Amino acid sequence: MNQRIASAVNESQPASTHAAHMASGQTVRLTAAQALVRYLAAQRVACEDGSGRTEPLFGGVFAIFGHGNVAGLGEALYQWRHELPTLRAHNEQAMAHTAIAYAKAQLRRRMMAVTTSIGPGATNLVTAAALAHVNRLPILLLPGDIFVSRAPDPVLQQIEDTHDGGLSANDALKPVSRYFDRIVHPAQLLTALPRALRVLTDAALCGPVTLALPQDVQSAAWDYPASFFTPRLVSFHAPAPVQAEIDAALAQLHRAKRPLIVAGGGVLYSHASEALQSLAAARGIPVAETQAGKGALAWDDPLNVGAIGVTGSPAANALAHDADYILAIGTRLQDFTTGSNSLFQHAHVIGINANSFDAIKHDGLAVQADVRLALIALADELVNWRAEANWTAHALQLAGEWRASVDHLTHAPQDRSCLPYDADVIGAVQRSSSRSPTDDIVVCAAGTLPAELHKLWRAGQPGAYHVEYGYSCMGYEIAGGLGAKLARPDREVIVMLGDGSYLMMNSEIATSVMLGAKLIIVVLDNRGYGCINRLQQACGGAPFNNLFDDCAQGPLGAPRIDFASHARSLGAQAEHVANVAELEAAMQRARASSRTYLISIDTDPTRTTEDGGWWWEVAVPEVSSRANVREARKQYDERLAARSRREKSSGTGESDDGADSSIGSNADNDNPAQ
């Protein structure tokens, strides 16, 4: 990565001499835009290395200028460009994805802001804001807005509402923001900015913050208290455990014989991996990982039973099916984790989460607390309790068998007569590392790959697995890889994605080249949306409008896309390979390269890893003229009935063994990744 950019975005910086000079007076006259930028630049966080040094809370601001932000905020960013770097991108949604990925890679300890013009620039942020909201990740959105004065009304790109004159395009961001404010006077920043900062740094509230900035207000001046811009050390807030909730959880755990820990992203964000490993080892509790939590425990830890849920390992899902208690730690228990609420068939749930909304899910007994502090509190009180020895031994056996399966699946010799599939590619990528493959950061988001990576990627440390699957947003991958690289310039960042995601959003390849933030991009080309094509057929549908061969076409037919040539046109190095052996050799060239390097490979859209998986509820039409749909609906109704029986039996305390036996079967799985 370009060292000038790396130092600007990541390294500690001294307080501005200009800022120190301006702070000597009682007030300082600034435009609202200048005040905002100066306030952001003043926020500091302690370095993670324990040196006592500080670094900026905000690693920078991604900006695409247009009318509505170029004159006001653009001038302010230029004035403080050394304290708060401004980075240019090529797509507003993509630059927000990059900022979100930066925060994720920093485990929410540092973050970025983004600014856009009014109109399409602002509405392009909606998808990214939703992604950040779902994944509980911080980002500060600073879209330009229409004139408060309404003098030039309607201004270019303004959306006029016939029943509310106060609405603008930015109101579309309200449902996907954790905090929203429209700054209609410069003085509002005195309250809006501290509120925004609290949301961004609070474990329970964390998510996107939007401060809509009318362009006339951005440029208006006001006398601000100089103390408002004094550099300050930001603390991150998460609730300490309440003893009564810890006691209630202990009372339940002491009854547990077959417990299972489900580790979510909250384990990583609270830096609780060591506490998790210690508790699991001391008490003999197996640990399964969600998509967001993968890497919380090293892949080769004896008690790591792998991925859980719809994209889960056979080991984790078998244990989840038989567990009597689920300790859900830092997870929001979305449907891919719980198999649409069909997986935890006999278990009581104890939810440990900084966010009470997440802690109570699945009718859980809630411990609202910082995950690390809660785990330490539980460990101190559980000295006389362990999981049943047979349960722990069974978990160790299943975990070992699954690690052996992963090794086999990712090292299978390729039959040159057929195309490789995702597991073959994953194995080749990890084998290509001259160091430990766990030093790499893999980035992905949507399609088949998240399922395969969840099962097969060997994450050896927190942050090595960077997959956005809360919103499963196609197009996140390359932009997200850029954010991860800006956050961790010393690590090799490998973006793995399908051709569908690449075609949705690839412009930040050019940004990565411009910033000197080298990525390795591996494109698996199955000529269409292979994942949804399989889901379509699993629901009884005919192959239609997903793979190129099944789409409406003109006389020239579907295009043959040369991804390598396209990436070269954006400034990257690139090549297409014919097989797995060529991929391994190309990966060596990519690792040796100093600039972003793309490798494309043709893959089979029909093959997936059959091991593991679980039912996922996708509604099938009740009425259809097609026999396949009617049969799929029959199976769907049977699974709904089985889940209903499980829910009723759990309410009476009765066991309903076998009632859901078909749900976990791989023979007719609705999981699109199967």
TrEMBL record:
Q: Name one GO molecular function term.
A: 3D-(3,5/4)-trihydroxycyclohexane-1,2-dione hydrolase activity
Fetch the PANTHER family from UniProt. 3D-(3,5_4)-TRIHYDROXYCYCLOHEXANE-1,2-DIONE HYDROLASE, THIAMINE PYROPHOSPHATE ENZYMES
Domain (Thiamine pyrophosphate enzyme N-terminal TPP-binding) spans 73-158
Q: What is this protein called?
A: 3D-(3,5/4)-trihydroxycyclohexane-1,2-dione acylhydrolase (Decyclizing)
The family line of this record is: Belongs to the TPP enzyme family.
Q: Which InterPro entries match?
A: DHS-like_NAD/FAD-binding_dom, Myo_inos_IolD, THDP-binding, Thiamin_PyroP_enz_cen_dom, Thiamin_PyroP_enz_TPP-bd_dom, TPP-bd_CS, TPP_enz, TPP_enzyme_TPP-bd
Stretches of the chain forming a coiled coil according to its record: none
- What keywords tag this UniProt record? Hydrolase, Thiamine pyrophosphate
**UniProt feature, compositional bias: Polar residues:** 1-16, 662-674
Q: Might you give the EC number(s) for this enzyme?
A: 3.7.1.22
* Thiamine pyrophosphate enzyme TPP-binding domain mapped to chain residues: 446-600
Where composition is biased (Basic and acidic residues), the residues are 629-641
Q: Where is this region: Disordered?
A: 1-21, 629-674
Thiamine pyrophosphate enzyme central domain spans which residues?
246-378
Gene3D superfamilies registered for this protein in UniProt: 3.40.50.970, TPP-binding domain (3.40.50.1220)
What organism, scientifically named, is this protein from?
A: Paraburkholderia denitrificans
